[in-house]
Amino acid sequence: MNMKLRLAVVATLLLTGCQTLPNRNDAVTDEQQTAQTATKSRSALDRSESEQSRISVWRHASNEMKMEIPNRAEVIGYRDWYLKHPKYLNTVTQKAAPYLYLVMQEIDKRDMPMELVLLPIVESAYNPNARSPSNATGLWQFTAGTGRRFGLEQSHWYDGRRDIQASTSAALDYLQKLHDELGGDWFNAVAAYNAGEGRIQRAIEQSQRAGKSGDFWSLNLPRQTTEYVPRLLALADIIKNADQYGVKLPDHPYKQQWQRIDAGGQVSLAVVADLAGLSLQEVK
Predict the structure, then answer these.
(1) What is the dihedral sign for C-alpha 117, 122, 124, 125?
(2) What is the rounded CA–CA span in Å between residue 47 and residue 1?
């Protein structure tokens, strides 16, 4: 059976020679004014793209984060841990950088909190091949069942949980659903992403029966989940205030780092690597 294999390969190498763009002379029409307008439009676009590429993707993410970080011991404790382990912080922010633009674009398109771009750090340390003891897989750590619920195909040849684009779309669909079902509370939505919506809903109801608010901090939850949200918020605090904390974020440009290619069928990764001018390890 001819199965489609989707490959993500560095854009700047793969796109060379994919298409021939007209030069300025080719683009000139009989109407001089039209040509001048087109030239100005191209120049403005070039400037815009150039300016964007000079912005660090992490700096852009930082600028877009708007959540209020609570001054709670749980958050402060994880923030201090991250700051005391700069090697880990540097490793995960470097690993995340090639994927951030795509994830940020999806978050921005849906008008969701930019802090969610940090969730794959908590989930998988931004490792697309990460697998948990419970067999949750990929950047967003989908289990097989939840992955299928949100449209992620899984077969002998292809696992959508490892597909950066497909899994990001599915994860944000899931998070939006949780947010809408849990009273519009993003902290509870993030907690439910970890523990499941049923468990969080029951904890909210238990909190409210006890005369409490039903917000995340009032819930009786398993230890892993009580740590999950503070870890995300601690990371957000550090990224938003990197200069204040003396953290140097990776200087990756704010632009797409790779291009999605449909090979039309099975293909050896060694062939892909050779055609792209990359090592096999880089393609993997």
Answers:
(1) positive
(2) 47
Give residue 53's pLDDT: 53
Q: Looking at the DSSP assignment, which residues form a beta bridge with residue 260? A: 8
Residues 123, 79: Cα–Cα separation, whole Å = 17
Region 261-283: what's the mean pLDDT? 90
Side-chain half-sphere exposure of 253, counting CA atoms within 13 A? 10
* Cα–Cα distance measured from residue 181 to residue 183, given in angstroms and rounded to the nearest whole number: 6
CB contact at 8 A, 269 and 284: yes
The set of catalytic residues is: 123
Query: pLDDT at residue 10 above 80?
Result: no
Residue 264: exposed, middle, or buried by beta-carbon count in 10 A (0-12, 13-18, 19+)?
Answer: exposed
C-beta pairs of 69-76 under 8 Å, 24+ apart in sequence: 69/233, 69/236, 69/237, 69/240, 70/217, 70/233, 72/217, 72/230, 74/226, 74/227, 74/230, 75/230, 75/233, 75/234, 75/237, 76/234
Determine the length of the chain: 284
Count CA atoms within 13 Å of residue 88 on its CB side: 13
Q: Give the tens place of pLDDT for each residue, 216-258.
A: 999 999 999 999 999 999 999 999 999 999 999 999 999 987 7
CA distance 97 to 66: 20
Q: Which two tokens stand for residue 281?
A: 């390890």
Are the C-beta atoms of residues 250 and 93 closer than 8 Å to each other? yes
Task: Give CA–CA dist 40/26, Å, rounded.
Answer: 16
pLDDT for 108-126, tens place per residue? 999 999 999 999 999 999 9
Looking at residue 262, the DSSP 8-state letter turns out to be E
Task: Compute the distance between CA of residue 152 and CA of residue 132 in angstroms, rounded to an integer.
Answer: 18
CA distance 63 to 41: 28
Residue 260 sits at the vertex; the CA angle it makes with 258 and 261, to the nearest 5 degrees, is 125
